[in-house]
Amino acid sequence: MPDPFVHRLRVRYAECDAQGVLFNAHYLAYIDHTITELWRAAYGGYQNMLERGVDIVVAEAQMRFLGPARFDEEVILEAVVTHMGMTSVTSRHRFRAGDGRELLDATMRHVFVDRETGAKTAIPDWARAGLKPWHMPGPAS
Amino acid sequence: MPDPFVHRLRVRYAECDAQGVLFNAHYLAYIDHTITELWRAAYGGYQNMLERGVDIVVAEAQMRFLGPARFDEEVILEAVVTHMGMTSVTSRHRFRAGDGRELLDATMRHVFVDRETGAKTAIPDWARAGLKPWHMPGPAS
Amino acid sequence: MPDPFVHRLRVRYAECDAQGVLFNAHYLAYIDHTITELWRAAYGGYQNMLERGVDIVVAEAQMRFLGPARFDEEVILEAVVTHMGMTSVTSRHRFRAGDGRELLDATMRHVFVDRETGAKTAIPDWARAGLKPWHMPGPAS
Amino acid sequence: MPDPFVHRLRVRYAECDAQGVLFNAHYLAYIDHTITELWRAAYGGYQNMLERGVDIVVAEAQMRFLGPARFDEEVILEAVVTHMGMTSVTSRHRFRAGDGRELLDATMRHVFVDRETGAKTAIPDWARAGLKPWHMPGPAS
Questions:
Q1: CB contact under 8 A, D71 and B16
Q2: d(C-alpha C43, C-alpha C49), whole Å
Q3: What's the DSSP call for residue D60?
Q4: Which of D24, D25, D60 sits opposite C64 (nearest CB)?
């Protein structure tokens, strides 16, 4: 079994809401930040992907919020690729606090698109190969 | 059949990403803005709810992104309450552009919590009654 | 003396920080939202400006924070153009709460740039004319 | 002469606007992120400060935007304390890109307030001592 891709983010003051915890929409942003880092590891970064003529858009998100992330707390984000289809990639994202508390369990589906036309396009071989180290097929959530 | 609750938001420049469209995490924020307005209509606003000793937290989100919302475009957000359980409220959110294009179809589950302890609490009668005008039971999505 | 350009924004939950008030960086975003509306009134909107080949970038900001803006509070934003130079426009922005409390007094300097090259460019005549109704020369702050 | 306090931030996709560069309001947020780290180094973090009964609010900001910060670019943020008055601290913030380009030169004034009453309060001795290593008196900008 491969290890998940791991990224760490510290909760910023500006990201907390009046409840003093990470505002819900920022969880989706944190997933995006993690995917940016996953792309860097998988195929040299987002810019590199654009230069090869493809872009990626979010198609679906399923999120279960399991506990609050507090200001200044470091969040450990683990990502695995659970499915690579013809044009889309499904990934699972788990957030934990430093003390082990579970914060989020999410499944995302991203679609590869042609950078110029915006139309769906097959996942390029280099992208498929780049993501392989974190490909852990299985039930999404 | 009741009418959905309708809110309108114009896409701000700061909310657009380098693709020139509303960044994905802001869709979740837009749902939050809509729910703030729904609460205002349903029971006099969020502050009013806090003063009665309850708060609300997001438990689940399921989102299907159907098309991009562009800078300065007005988005029409329609919300209905699809289920009121013992402690949680499920709502469905559809975003459309002014020209009719579908942008998002999402289902949210919020949980009522005691403001002091943070523990789940039964939906108060006044909250249940307040949401009733937009209660449209049915399959969530 | 001309009237200032007036825009109103309600403080969103996601914009509040753990102090329960509008986070400082969002004041700068609010100025940006106001300027978007000023451009709409002055010359048909930002997109229209881009299509004529010019863009605008922020060069300077001077802000005095006079009091907190609270969640769900409506903020009244007044803008006047205090100076139109060769390539830059200086504007003053005052934020007040509905109850009259002063929230912010800011001065911004924006520079017109060629959309393609990014180089400074003279303020086009149509832009100068469009801003004229809100031009109130005087000491900036 | 003391060395400035240095923090590094990578520009996130969600922080870029449709011009493909860091949106102007996020520069103010970046200063806030830097100050959070400065506080950690100076006196054990923001929470620690709150527990001692004081909080800090922004009173003034002066910003000169010198060049765009691009997506995924690492920004080097240097901060020095230029003045410690009775109740307020003035700091200077310079942002540079990895290739040396200057991005921002800003001066901030923060005021210490009593956490309970919100009233201005004298800078506590422990705070004054904690900031001393980065105190570099001089013209702010």
A1: no
A2: 8
A3: E
A4: D60
CA angle C41, D19, D62 (to 5 degrees): 75
**How far is residue D28's CA from residue D34's CA, in Å, rounded to a whole number?**
10
Instruction: Return the number of other C-beta atoms located less than 10 Å from residue D53's C-beta.
Output: 11
Residue of C nearest to D59 (CA): C65
Whether B28 has its CB under 8 Å from any CB of chain A: the answer is yes
Phi-psi region of D25 (alpha: psi -120 to 50; beta: other; left: phi over 0): alpha
| Amino acid, single-letter form, for residue D122 | A
CB pair distance less than 8 Å for D72 and A29: no
Count of other CB atoms within 10 angstroms of residue C85: 12
A24-43 and B24-43 helices cross at what angle (nearest 10)?
170
Among A13, A46, A47, beta carbon nearest to D32 = A13
Residue of B nearest to D12 (CA): B17
CA distance B31 to B109: 12
Residue C98, number of CB atoms within 10 A of its CB: 10
pLDDT tens across A2-48, in order? 899 999 999 999 999 988 899 999 999 999 999 999 999 998 998 89
DSSP 8-state secondary structure symbol assigned to residue D20: S
| A46 touches D: beta carbon within 8 Å | yes
Q: Which residues of chain A are within 8 Å of residue C28 when distances are taken between CB atoms?
A: none
- Are A28 and A64 a contacting pair, CB within 8 Å? no
pLDDT tens-digit profile of A57-84? 999 999 999 999 999 999 999 999 999 9
Chain D hits for C64, Cβ within 8 Å: 59-60
Measured in residues, chain C has a length of 141
pTM recorded for the entire structure:
0.95
Provide the ipTM.
Answer: 0.94
Other residues' Cβ atoms within 10 Å of the Cβ of residue D45? 16
- Of the candidates A119, A64, A60, A126, the one whose C-alpha atom is nearest the C-alpha of residue A89 is A60
d(CA C128, CA C141): 22
Using the CB atoms, write b or e for A66-79: b if 16+ within 10 Å. Answer: eebbbbbbebbbbb
**Chain A nearest CA to C43, separation (Å):** 30
Chain A residues with CB under 8 Å of C13 CB are: 17-18, 23
Q: Which residues are registered as beta bridge partners of D99? A: none
Amino acid type, D64: R
d(CA D92, CA D106): 6
Q: Is the dihedral of CA B77, D15, A106, A38 positive or negative?
A: positive
| Alpha carbon distance D7, D108 (integer Å) | 16
> What residues contact residue D106 under an 8 Å CB cut-off, 6+ apart?
D27, D31, D61, D62, D63, D64, D92, D93, D94, D141
Name the DSSP letter for residue D116: T
